[in-house]
Amino acid sequence: IMAAAAITNAQIVEALGTLTNIVARDNLPGRDGEM
Measured at the alpha carbon of residue 20, what is the angle toward residues 7 and 3, in degrees to the nearest 5? Predict the structure, then answer.
């Protein structure tokens, strides 16, 4: 149970980090309309 919880927490942290990077990249100045 503890191992499963640790894996879940690691996945959550990784997902949050990915989302943070995406949001930060999308909010960079001068990046509007550059898809």
Answer: 5
Name the residue type at position 14. E
Give the DSSP letter string of 1-35: -HHHHHHHHHHHHHHHHHHHHHHHHHTSTT-TT--
Give the pLDDT confidence of 1-35 residue by residue, as tens digits.
Answer: 667 777 788 898 999 999 998 888 877 676 555 55
Taking the model in full, what pTM does it have? Answer: 0.52
Spell out the residues 6+ positions from residue 7 whose beta carbon is closer than 8 angstroms to its own: none
